[in-house]
Design brief:
The structure is a homodimer of 353-residue chains.
Chain A lengths: L7 H6 L20 H10 L2 H6 L1 H14 L5 E2 L6 H8 L1 E4 L3 E4 L6 H5 L6 H4 L1 H14 L5 E6 L1 H10 L7 H9 L1 H25 L3 E6 L7 H17 L4 E2 L2 E2 L2 E5 L6 H5 L5 E3 L6 H8 L4 E6 L8 H15 L5 E5 L9 H14 L5
Helix pairs in contact in A: 2-4, 4-8, 9-11, 10-11, 11-12, 14-15, 15-16
């Protein structure tokens, strides 16, 4: 495969010196972009878009045509694994993901199997291959998956929830059943991320979107431990290149030191943390990715520049910072504010290196 | 007024020795209780129930008839203040609170006035007076309000939201307008809590339900500062008795030391924190209230007892702990699990005093 022309992200994730702070944005390809909506319209639905490697490649590349981003992230959904397990993913307009056949009893839980990613998730791997080819080494391609616990939340609840009370009732009533789901998910996530690396992903990221709903002890037992096992099972290298890993637990700020100790290369921060304080807490163990409040992108270019500067300044001088949001880009974001953000990070960050 | 027969809560909030750990539960009067649903049915709606002092007194007392709780909390809603400001509170079944006339422009914001609580909020004060009389000193009565920032969230967004992006866009675009709303709210909340104390509330609590959606710097500027000013304006004593104050920021675990330093007597903790670690962080500055995950109450009496014991044990020996949940009681809670919790705290906690 081609050499990377811009390896700033890889270097920053490995805490190596860079000329500036690399920037990419969670959900950088999405509904705030008119060209995305056009492609999605052609696909017919969000899931059809995810499942068509050609169209997934097209939308993955769209934000890179507009902005000087330092990475692409494969366009997909965090719930492809449980769908491949047969749970029947679908989307209800305005209400988010649903599973037709959530895990409802012990028999269903005991029958759960990790899918072979090269079969049931081949459409994602094909999109990774096609995107990697189309990028031609311009910037690295990030592969991703939901975390074992976050997948379990949707698999058991059957949908998003403010409190995931079905999941938590199972956790407190039959912890061994939840552990079984998490073990299967851990195998599935590890296999899927390694398959994405084989297909061409140069960085992998674990989205632990719901780990933050747990108590401290429960987070360690039911989410962190499976993040640790997943990271331990990841390919560290592919074709002679290191493949860095990023772990992001939304609402996990209280457990930052613990997350930084599981073996990942970088930790994603949500916007509630001061990134300077976070850097002091993790020391040199990991790089940090984040953490602008996505709501700043609703305000206007001046607020965007001021807040971007505040974050660069809070992180301070030296290697190990990947600029990102603290959560995905909102669909209500004016695209010109994203342009202002990427330009501001590029213009202001060399002073910190 | 009558002497308190059980002043365990007051003593614990003031870090004085007690024979056991007092317990009450956020939303202890609510939809999980069949007798509540019966009274609500008679009232016709949730708001009619809040506005009828006789019925509000009735539901306030219902959980005390079932459980050996150490406090009553007046049955009301956190959004009575903006309703009294003329924003038109109503509830959409299954979707939570809405305002008919949210703050939409600078003119509306500049025209905002703090209401006279003895007029527009008299129904709450009447309920406080009636409940205080009915309690006859059995346990203390807690009055409460939403925090200035949390009220502003609903007043500007017009309803609940996952990200309150209208509020945040205003915060980043026109911070001076949000500050104006917060100043008016601060005056309104202070007046309202002091009026509740005059009417008979023996403890006051500020619910900062949405402070945790902010970044660290924004929390300090837009929520914490107004919590501080509110607490500074509270009556410390009434009729020769100290009136302790409790501040609860959901999702505020990262800022615990800051919240503990604003002058309140106690800080409420959500369930994501280890209460032992929290105690080490705040030292002797405040008491701590919390912090069982309300989802534990969905699991069963054995899980309830085990988790209650874990929290008592994590806090450890000595004064300054008020047992509570880390969030309100879920409507799906079996009442017998609440009985198991209150009994467990009463049985297990004397060993820690």
């Amino acid at each position: 495969m081609t050499q990377l022309k811009n390896d700033t992200l890889i270097r920053a994730l490995l805490r190596q010196p860079t000329a500036y702070t690399p920037v990419w944005l969670m959900r950088q390809a999405g509904r705030y972009l008119p060209e995305y909506n056009e492609t999605r319209g052609r696909a017919g639905s969000f899931l059809a878009l995810c499942r068509d490697p050609g169209l997934a490649t097209e939308v993955t590349l769209q934000p890179l045509a507009r902005y000087a981003l330092d990475a692409a992230i494969i366009f997909s959904d965090i719930l492809t694994i449980p769908d491949a397990m047969g749970l029947g993913l679908h989307f209800v307009e305005g209400e988010g993901p649903r599973f037709e056949r959530p895990l409802r009893d012990e028999r269903e839980i005991r029958g759960l199997q990790a899918p072979d990613p090269t079969a049931a998730l081949r459409y994602v791997l094909d999109a990774v291959r096609e995107t990697r080819g189309a990028l031609a080494g311009a910037v690295p391609l990030i592969g991703f998956s939901g975390s074992p616990f976050t997948l379990a939340c949707y698999m058991i609840e059957g949908r998003g929830s403010a409190d995931f009370h079905t999941v938590k009732a199972l956790l407190y009533r039959r912890p061994e059943l939840l552990h079984h789901v998490l073990e299967v998910n851990c195998r599935a996530v590890t296999d899927f991320l390694n398959a994405q690396v084989e297909a061409g992903a140069q960085v992998v990221m674990l989205f632990d979107t719901w780990g933050g709903i747990l108590g401290a002890a429960e987070f360690r037992e039911f989410s962190l431990e499976y993040l640790r096992r997943t990271v331990a099972g990841l390919r560290q290298e592919h074709q002679g290149e290191r493949v860095p890993s990023i772990v992001f637990t939304k609402g996990g700020g209280g457990w930052l030191e613990d997350i930084a100790a599981i073996g990942c290369d970088a930790v994603g921060l949500d916007w509630t943390l001061d990134i300077g304080a976070a850097r002091q807490r993790v020391g040199k163990r990991v790089s940090l990715q984040g953490n602008l409040d996505p709501a700043v992108l609703l305000a206007g270019p001046e607020a965007v520049r001021a807040q971007a500067k505040a974050i660069l300044n809070a992180y301070g001088k030296g290697a190990g910072h990947v600029f990102n949001l603290g959560h995905g880009v909102s669909q209500h974001t004016p695209p010109e504010n994203v342009a202002a953000l990427v330009a501001a990070v590029r213009a202001l960050s060399p002073a910190y290196h």
